[in-house]
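Hi support team,

I'm opening this ticket because the web form for multi-chain structure prediction keeps timing out on my end. I have pasted the exact lines I submitted so you can reproduce it. The total is 920 residues across two entries, so I didn't expect it to be a heavy job. Is there a limit I'm missing, or should I split the entries? Thanks in advance, R.K.
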Amino acid sequence: MAQKPSIPKGTRDFSPAEMSRRNYIFDTIREVYALYGFEQIETPAMENLSTLMGKYGEEGDKLLFKILNSGDFMRGVKSEEVGTPALAAQLCEKGLRYDLTVPFARYVVQHRDELTLPFRRYQIQSVWRADRPQKGRYREFYQCDADIVGSDSLLNEVELMLMVNEVFRRLGIRVCIKINNRKILSGIAEVIGQADKIVDITVAIDKLDKIGLDNVNAELAEAGIPEDAISKLQPIIKLSGSNEDKLRTIREVLSESETGLKGVDEVTYVLQQYSTLTTGGSEDGNASSQLELDLTLARGLNYYTGCIFEVKALDVEIGSITGGGRYDNLTGIFGMPGLSGVGISFGADRIYDVLNQLDLYPKTIATTTELLFVNFGEAESAYALTALAACRKAGIHAEIYPDAAKMKKQMQYANARNIPYVALAGENEIAQGVFTLKDMQSGQQQLLGTSELINAITKK
Amino acid sequence: MAQKPSIPKGTRDFSPAEMSRRNYIFDTIREVYALYGFEQIETPAMENLSTLMGKYGEEGDKLLFKILNSGDFMRGVKSEEVGTPALAAQLCEKGLRYDLTVPFARYVVQHRDELTLPFRRYQIQSVWRADRPQKGRYREFYQCDADIVGSDSLLNEVELMLMVNEVFRRLGIRVCIKINNRKILSGIAEVIGQADKIVDITVAIDKLDKIGLDNVNAELAEAGIPEDAISKLQPIIKLSGSNEDKLRTIREVLSESETGLKGVDEVTYVLQQYSTLTTGGSEDGNASSQLELDLTLARGLNYYTGCIFEVKALDVEIGSITGGGRYDNLTGIFGMPGLSGVGISFGADRIYDVLNQLDLYPKTIATTTELLFVNFGEAESAYALTALAACRKAGIHAEIYPDAAKMKKQMQYANARNIPYVALAGENEIAQGVFTLKDMQSGQQQLLGTSELINAITKK
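Hello R.K., no limit was hit. The queue was backed up. Here is the completed structure from your submission:
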């Protein structure tokens, strides 16, 4: 036999068992999005390369999957261009989407005349990146984004936090939601007299968890931050205590920075509203997620202009499983300035890993077919088919084994598929107008008419 | 302002209203697939080009979207290869999937050790074709396939027909399911002494609807079919009457062809089982779909080996909206011979067009947000947020307008979004602990406490 076929590295097939688990995650996110009034859109897998290029930095441009033009793709290419980096742009007009944010910005601008603002949209689709594949990093993966554009009200931030809390409450994952604010970071850089070094500062302190304080300070010095400025930063980096403690301290530190104080006010409002609205959320046994002010949180700093969020799972060692923030100029790159928005993105693949590690999937999602009719031959299957139709009419996921194969083989099939009930009807059952219903877990058997059989399965 | 951005020709954005309608179709198909015991898989958008090339004929190879290799894609390309058709294969290792059948065949072979046969799988994903875009033909579109592999029982054909019937019954589309059998077509070619001309014969008679009998006969003559053979074909092409009449006639015509009679037996069995099992299906007012033997139906002839299906909408002039059939060697191309299967594919885009033309969407699917809380300012919104949380807890899709904008603007937003209920609370309502609930359709207003408000909306 020929060699087994394979798929491109960094891509995956999803088996029925994996699909059940993935759909459970996607359905949960989708339901919560809908509950909060978000509307779904979809955009094409392929965008014009001009839409994508230059939006993700130089590194991002390299990671775009480009699609070879159809037909005579070499037409118009001059021989001296062959072998130059610019050739790709000649050969390819289209690329696969790299995230859902840029296509969404493009969508808002392209359809602005049809949209009612504020626009609460969600989008759950694949994205593609020509990254080096490694454990937990794929070249094709899903993103689950929700954004509100056309409103700079902080209520939107509160809504997103509530939504994050609700998704993880439903999934049963204990999380800590971390929050920070770009304006606080700007204020910090300002008060230590290093406003122009904000990127270096935040990149360095963002690594605190990974590399420790000494290395952060070394990196700051290397970036040319003077010693007195670094020492002014120390109380901020090491800031601990409750959110209220932190806010009190940082408000003092930033008392001279208008921008910084604005950031503190924003975070204070979001924290207060969130805690007011989630108090009492524990009545069904699930405590609400903590919301923790973390001044070292930066994420894609140049992108965000206000609140920044990140979600960490408490019981599994894994990177952030959700992130997002406020941006003030999403659509400016497409010629429509001044539109503010705020969004979050659930990392479905990491959430999948967390649920797997904690074994948190509900038992019910594994079941597909609930009832298998055994096939003993033409007369018997004709008898079974009528009952099969009645079962399906009652909403029972059911099938009949298509061939009159050996009993053992059919039972093995039921076991391999995790089918909980099997119905058998041979000569005796047919004469009595009944089926033998076997509970595959307990091994119990009962003689039942079709409607009793339906009751026995649906009442379970 | 810069020029509006656009998307590649032949691709589409889907707005929230379009997504609701599309999801209604996909959910209906998915539910019926699950009811019949089919399990979902997904495969990557990108396959190795070696998996795809040569599987769709020469024309198909040209219509594959190819993905430029990452990094130095010109490395190893010799200068004399530049400008040759073989260059694409050097530049691209991967392509976008063209249908769901070849990736499924690849999946079955690659995962054969994990699979339990017979395998009932369904798959609902996009496919991409570099076809010339035109009305109703896109470069990116969804396919919704269900196949049973590893069993040659005709019960599978019956199951698929029942499933087709159930999907269109649920969607409210009146259809005719046409059935034919490759073995009957072979038998016909055989008995008129033209077994080697089967492709020409079926291609010609497949056009009967479009070009009429005279042109079909002219085409047959042009293909080198002798006059006496053409005249023998006439009663078969013109065959009419009930399925029973047609079967009786064709059984006589094919009495000398073993293959042909096998095909007649197969169709007879499927028709009988289907009609037995769908009798009584009209109790909820929906007559079952007709199943009509159509000897001119051929579809992708070289591919199918047994029954062939096609579904036509009765009330809209449009091409086939579903198709499928039996194939005996799906996985042979990947080195795993002898695996028989049968499948169907729903054409979601055409079904969408049919539902639009007949305006058959249920009213409920248009609603996303059910209730909007008007925002009158910080104190009022704080009051509303608690009720909002209670509404969501009760499962009501609800939101609050994020800004304290003018009343008129907020009501316009509710209207544009088709939100059926609006809740308002100013000073008076807050003092009384109630909301004014406005029914946007009737204009009626009531003063209600939060739990009464929830009851008023959920009982509707």
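A quick check on our side: The two ends of chain A are 46 Å apart (CA to CA). Let us know if the file doesn't open in your viewer.
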